[in-house]
Write a structure and sequence with these properties.
Chain lengths: 393, 393, 379, 379
Amino acid sequence: MSNLEQFRQEVSAWLEQNCPESMRMPMSSFEDIFPGGRNPEMSNPDQKVWCDRMAERGWTVPHWPKEYGGGGLQKAEINILREEMSRIGARPALTSFGISMLGPALLEFGNEEQKREHLPRIVRGDVRWCQGYSEPNAGSDLASLATAAEDKGDHYLINGQKIWTSYADKCDWIFCLVRTDNSGSKHEGISFMLFDMDQPGVTARPIKLISGSSPFCETFFDNAVADKRNLVGEAGKGWTIAKYLLTHEREMISGFGSAPKIAVADMALESIGADASGRLANSVLRQNIAQYQLDTMVFGATMARVGDEAKAAGGLGPASSIFKYYGTELNKRRNELNLAVLGESALGWEGEAYSEGRVSRDWLRSKGNSIEGGTSEVQLNIIAKRVLGLPDA
Amino acid sequence: MSNLEQFRQEVSAWLEQNCPESMRMPMSSFEDIFPGGRNPEMSNPDQKVWCDRMAERGWTVPHWPKEYGGGGLQKAEINILREEMSRIGARPALTSFGISMLGPALLEFGNEEQKREHLPRIVRGDVRWCQGYSEPNAGSDLASLATAAEDKGDHYLINGQKIWTSYADKCDWIFCLVRTDNSGSKHEGISFMLFDMDQPGVTARPIKLISGSSPFCETFFDNAVADKRNLVGEAGKGWTIAKYLLTHEREMISGFGSAPKIAVADMALESIGADASGRLANSVLRQNIAQYQLDTMVFGATMARVGDEAKAAGGLGPASSIFKYYGTELNKRRNELNLAVLGESALGWEGEAYSEGRVSRDWLRSKGNSIEGGTSEVQLNIIAKRVLGLPDA
Amino acid sequence: MALVLNEEQVMLRDAAAGFLAEKATISHLRDLRDSGDEHGFDPEVWREMTEMGWAGIAIPEAFGGLGYGYTGLGLVLEQAGRNLSASPLQSSVLVAATVIGELGSASQKEALLPAIAAGETLVSLALQEAPHHAPLQCAMSASKEGDHFILSGTKLLVMDAPAADAFIVLARTAGAPGDDDGLSAFLLQAETEGLSVAPGKMVDSRAYGTLTLTDVKVAEDQLLGDIGQASKGLGHALDIINIGLASELLGLSAEAFERTAEYLKERKQFGRVIGSFQGLAHRAAELFAELELARSIVLQALQKIDEGDPDLALYASAAKAKLCEVAQRATNEAIQMHGGIGMTDEYEIGFFIKRARVVQHLFGDYNYHLDRFACQSGF
Amino acid sequence: MALVLNEEQVMLRDAAAGFLAEKATISHLRDLRDSGDEHGFDPEVWREMTEMGWAGIAIPEAFGGLGYGYTGLGLVLEQAGRNLSASPLQSSVLVAATVIGELGSASQKEALLPAIAAGETLVSLALQEAPHHAPLQCAMSASKEGDHFILSGTKLLVMDAPAADAFIVLARTAGAPGDDDGLSAFLLQAETEGLSVAPGKMVDSRAYGTLTLTDVKVAEDQLLGDIGQASKGLGHALDIINIGLASELLGLSAEAFERTAEYLKERKQFGRVIGSFQGLAHRAAELFAELELARSIVLQALQKIDEGDPDLALYASAAKAKLCEVAQRATNEAIQMHGGIGMTDEYEIGFFIKRARVVQHLFGDYNYHLDRFACQSGF
């Protein structure tokens, strides 16, 4: 028996013994996702049990090195772990910004002390992290951020405001872009800093969106304190880390267009009916749906191609630069089509008859896809400059 | 009997006596338009007879003052002249750039001597004019023109190249933008000059377009001479005159979208057929045609509205700024639809079966509509800046 | 008729603009929404509007109206669109009074129109039975029993239903769904036995209701017009109604655009006012062009109503289709160009897109009317 | 199959790119056009292409081809699109050989395919009878008389007809236009009595012809495959053909776009390189995205041919529809972004739009294939 086969047997046996029954049920809502934290919100106490057991083996983040609390697994082993979890329907034990965003940044840019302090706590789900990037006057132009961090010897004193901080009201720590220097160009003088949200100088206020409540917050810093050992990388060199993470974020958001969904054409046939030849009765809507489904198919082929190219060449080709832009625009089209197809039943806001406005709220929420994580305009600028080599204005 | 009624009777009687029978036939080709000139091209010698008779009374340009050879007529009288000509089907006696472009500029900016010298010759059709504006490196950015006019005391020496000079190979004189000064901003130092094309320093070469032969020329000046008294306005202040004339030109070109045409839907029904319910058999093409016809109807309503507003308020409203842009884009859509509707029969280039490529050549020619006379991009810039008040880049 | 407003119309428009910008703004709509107001409009503001005669603008003087025609009503609806003013101006005035004007007998008009014009009674139309507008698909049966009819079934998307005093209910006295013949209109009081209203809020924060009729007994004199002959008059009324809604969409789109253009002049990114970026500037200029086209077709269609043009159906579908297209683009661009702040409930721009989609959908959306425009054009 | 090229395919593509960029460029096409060349292609260049085996890329080795599959042929067609290379690669190889491969008996394939692969014979398909592609509408009758058939009628848009040695003519041995059954394919030599070719040049400067058949006598052994059963094989061949044309459109669009992007970096107006204007830059970036999507669907569809995917019709219509859309946009933008110079015959960019529209139209345009895509998708 090969090592991998033996590994599979061990994993299978361990999962069978350790994964609680309730953690093998399909997730039914956002609350079933476990983000960890000091006082984690749970839909079921088994969430913490399951997370703790997985974290003990480092399997909440199986690809991180063992010395930082990760599983230290190889690619083939990680695939086996995934397959075996999937076989019994085991839920992910821990899903967090710490794993997807801060961790990679620390592994790339953090010093040894920072890695040893923060990574294991992320693996265990002890600390829930939020991201402090955008400010009211620094949206697409993120680098013009103004939140000030004043050097006070062993710590920084932080004053200013962030916006669009996801779950800031529920998170324990923040990784935050602040300005430590105003003298140079706007890209210089930005620093990447970590600090505890549970201190008097920090206030977070949830933002209500046009689609209803949201995880986003406005976050205010009034003489908040960041210990100097929690400056990641050099002071004034935080922009490099920010750009690294923005790429991560865009790849996450670009997945929107690709989620499996009921074919909009089927919904339309049910809602509007077909003519004698089997064609959708409204020919205008039919064309709009055909164009959408064609572009969805073609976008899917492109994601597959880029994936195959990456496997073959070991890196992402230029086509990947269109994902965020095209995926989010496609999702907006899909949501507008939902309205056209479902008609009256999509336009409700409250009441059971309208599923509490699920369709309309999703539609409104989709409008933000092409704004958050770099607007479509910023994406087009990036393609024009970096891929096509067109000069700056 | 009122004066106007008496005028109508006189006009009617004069036209009956003086308009040659052949000049009462509908025009069947471009050659039937009479542009005048030293050696005018004619499809029929009556063209010159008719022009001469009309010019004698100043009626080739009835609204210009009598002292410059015009008819000196009032609006009401001009309308009567038009109505009476239209009643007997009389063709316009003279159609020229001199009337539509140079004349208005001279009336506004020329000195008395220039008006007395040039306007009567325009009225009589003695001189055919062309316009020297664009250069190879000054297209949308017209003001960056480089054709140089060097001050030689009593005359200027002109060197450089113009492009898109309509009928330059057939015209007698040119009104031309030249640079008399390089020291200031690009809008300064431009002068508006008139000179004879029949001199050794001037060469005109027709340009072949993607649609076939065209009236456009490349025009070269190699020590061409312009007499100083033919500088219009002040030296270096020609940009004001150029802008004045550009507005004229755009209004002429924007008419493209509005010409009466066979409804494209009727052509499609004939070429593709209808389904049982009477709808065009191809539903995708049907939607494209519907969108085009809707926009054509809506654009027509807008031209009517702007016209009515102008009558009511005595000036063009902001909606007129969209004419050139929208009209030319609409005409391009129309020509693409012709291809989709007529299929194979629209794609021919030579041979009788394809009417010598009439449809395909029209289609190719239409691509230039949104380039000549200020590109669509320039039109959008103008709307953004002048109408919406958006700031410059 | 020249495509310009006359003096009377300009005064009416300016009066409406002034009043609504003070009394029925987005801020008022927000308050109504957040207070959970059942009716979705302020009866006091509505009273003032009716006192100014707005409920009777398009109603002939013989029936207690001002007789200004639909061009006048369209101007007020345009201003209501600009301010997202919540009132029964759509449900009772544009829709119900128009249907009554088309279908009712002289005595029915005398009984109903002055009361609507005075704002004393609120009538709403109960037509739709499925998620999409398809008037001839009406299937609700009205079976004759002795000297009365029995109606049973469900009607969706009844505007201002919770506040309505009466409903015009479309039902079949003969024929099958899809048939022209056999459609009849009945006037039912809200408190009629067997009629119940399930209220609901749509995405625009306005009140709508689902009407359920269970063996409702209706007398013959509640028939509006002739039995089985409602479809022609209803069709003409729907053309007028769609042109009125196009007017509202025009105001709404123009306001959303103008607010966006202002924002483009204020907001700075990358050290520049964002309106100086040509990518945004060109899109704004294109949208301006579309809005000018929209303005033309709405005015033309309104005038065609008042001229009694026989091709009104063509103009109605042209106006509604074009305005659906323009409103969709204008409201989408409004949010995208505002960026993050446009996504927040606190900022007002998001209210436009919500109202827009409901008005776009009412009585046929873009897909419905572009298809109908092609049919009306003979292909 | 992974959506990447294998080593063999990369080599083939690079070889084609190198050869065509030297021997069959737009400059050569211009010379052919201006010299009034009857055939519209250079037989010497075609001979060199066949010597490299390109005419047999997709033909199985058993029939004298290279057996590289259609993915290989697609790569060469893409390069032909880039260079607007004029040759019978479309008419004889992509179209005729594919139809023969689908319909012919083993002995017919043995007789024809090696000759096509070697460039010894040029075969072209005579299918279309009206301005639009509608294969089942074929009405030309082939009536049986004794041991042979009599064919009469007209065929349009026959590619490379003046140079063709033989034609595959579709005609009805039974049934009425629109019927699946009764379609038969016949192989006719060009010099057949009663068959005449009226040559014509289309807007792309390539040669096409109108075939007129007057009581042409055709023997039974000239039937390709079974009598009356051509429609299925023809349909499958048309799917392959449309994917091949999509490959050509991909190359053509990509080249037009790249030339335009280069021009945006060179041309100065208002003191700036015009590619720095965001209005143009955003449009170029959007077009880049569309071209990347186009590249994916073309490669996927080519692979589906070689995999023998049963849903090929869906992929074929998806690829052709998408590439028609992208080619139209890319060629229109190419001229608009080049401005005045793009309108001149002297400059090369205008050649792309001319070839594009013809290829878009051949065997079904955007409207045809988007409609078919919807039908294939079940709505």
